[in-house]
Amino acid sequence: MNTETGPAQTLFNALEDQSATVGIIGLGYVGLPLAVTVAARGFQVVGFDTDKTKIVKLDRGESYIDAVSDEAMAGVTDFGRVSWTDDFTVLSTCDVIVICVPTPLTRHREPDLSFVEQTARTIATNMTTGTLVVLESTTFPGTTDEVLTPILAGNGLGADQDFWVAFSPEREDPGNKDFSTSSIPKIVGGDSHDAGRLATAFYSHVVDKVVAVSSTRVAEAVKITENIFRAVNIALVNELKVIYQAMGIDVWEVIDGAATKPFGFMPFYPGPGLGGHCIPIDPFYLTWKAQEYGVRTRFIELAGEINVAMPDYVVARLREALDRHSGKGLSRSKVLIVGISYKKNVPDMRESPSVRLLDMMQTQGAEVDYLDPHIDAIPVLREYPHLLGRKSVAMKDVASGGYDAILISTDHDAIDYAALVGLGIPVIDTRNAIAMRGLPMGNVTKA
Which of 49, 298, 402, 417 is deepest in the core (most CB within 10 A)? Predict the structure, then answer.
């Protein structure tokens, strides 16, 4: 259609002069940083979330995410550029609506699009003519045009006439001090020429660089490819860890040596399993979708099997260390897990392999505590509701805790590793934290 006149051009003009109102649904690790960034760049923003406790905190100007400082919150609230609500009828006032809701897996490791679908139905009920809807939640290629757009059209408005749909994957990296929402290049794909043009116009005001691709499916594939790349390479070094350990070779030393090659090699490091909201989940989205086309994702599936098996390998190494040190079985031991979040120096619990390790050891009869300066108490976890409220021990209480072994699962910087080693009990180190700090390795088992 001709965008020189009509609703598309009207919206384009509002994006260009930043008079458009932007609604962002889902105020978590993706949505809240985006909302604050969009407001800081000059748009009027309405943030939506079903969690009333979040809205109360945000109304007080309090951030609950490390990536958004209270100062950043004050910077946008003082200018009156942002408001927060759980009233989704306010979507009718928004010219752009960005969806930042979870896309988890079911118990059968199949895509769970229920949050996207429910959000789409809510938008359809409240959306008015002339709205751009952008999905940022990671998903399989085809979700935007096969799932989102048909639901939005259910209110009688016409796709690419009355509203436009685009996909622009989030690329947040919790704890990364080098990149922020505005400095990470933004992939943008529309389901039509107008949708791509409008989405590009919007994000061009929000981020430093926009990378436009030809369709929503390409944009969806870009995101899922990025995460599969990491998952496969982590699986590779996890497998090498097991092989080299059997040969008496330190895989971390091998990787560091290989990383000195100035071309053709990119270092990845092993660990106790995969964590976070993307890498443990996204490969299975593509695996599931590929079945529709009669294609096997053998490489991706194998990588998933290797990574999922890592907690079992870590527990096996813990058992060996206990047997060598005291002959005491795991079921009669008390173990301290260091680091319960999925990543160092962040309070993010999503898909953390540390939680699985804790649950596995308890199931096998061990008494288990955790130490994490970033997680005072375990929050609601869908797969581990019985762990709700478990509290971290304090570093000062570790020496008197009567532990038989320590398992380093997440290598936060704010841990006194020298004190841990000084206890003289087995330390199972999944992150190479002790060796990296040049501490004595006599009681340390790498896993």
Answer: 49
**Crossing angle of helices 251-258/216-247, nearest 10°?**
120
Q: What is the pLDDT of residues 103-120, one digit of tens each?
A: 988 888 889 999 999 999
**Dist CA 312 CA 319 (whole Å):** 11
Closest CA to 430 of 316, 350, 347: 316
Active site residue 278: yes
Angle, helices 216-247/298-325, rounded to nearest 10 degrees: 30
Please tell me the pTM assigned to this model.
Answer: 0.91
- What burial class does residue 397 get, using C-beta atoms within 10 Å of its C-beta: 0-12 exposed, 13-18 middle, 19+ buried? exposed
Q: How far is CA 410 from CA 133, 228, 352, in A?
A: 37, 22, 9
Outline which parts of the chain fall under CATH 3.40.50.720.
7-214, 230-446
Cβ atoms 117, 152 nearer than 8 A: no
Structure tokens at 428: 């199972």
Query: Looking at domain 230-446, what is its CATH homologous superfamily?
Result: NAD(P)-binding Rossmann-like Domain (3.40.50.720)
Distance CA 47, CA 6 (A): 28
State pLDDT tens for residues 81-106. Answer: 999 999 999 999 999 999 999 998 88
Task: Enter the tokens of residue 13.
Answer: 């003009």
Structurally, what CATH architecture does the domain formed by 7-214 represent?
Answer: 3-Layer(aba) Sandwich (3.40)
Q: Which of 278, 300, 330, 407 is catalytic?
A: 278
Is 190 in a helix, a strand, or coil? strand
Q: CA separation (Å) from 19 to 22, 24, 208? A: 10, 16, 20
- Measured CA to CA, the distance from residue 290 to residue 354 in angstroms comes to 30
Helix (H/G/I), strand (E/B), else coil: 98: strand
- Do the beta carbons of residue 163 and residue 18 sit within 8 Å? no
Q: What CA–CA distance (Å, rounded) separates 126 from 360?
A: 45
Q: Measure the CA–CA gap between 216 and 231, rounded to whole angstroms.
A: 23
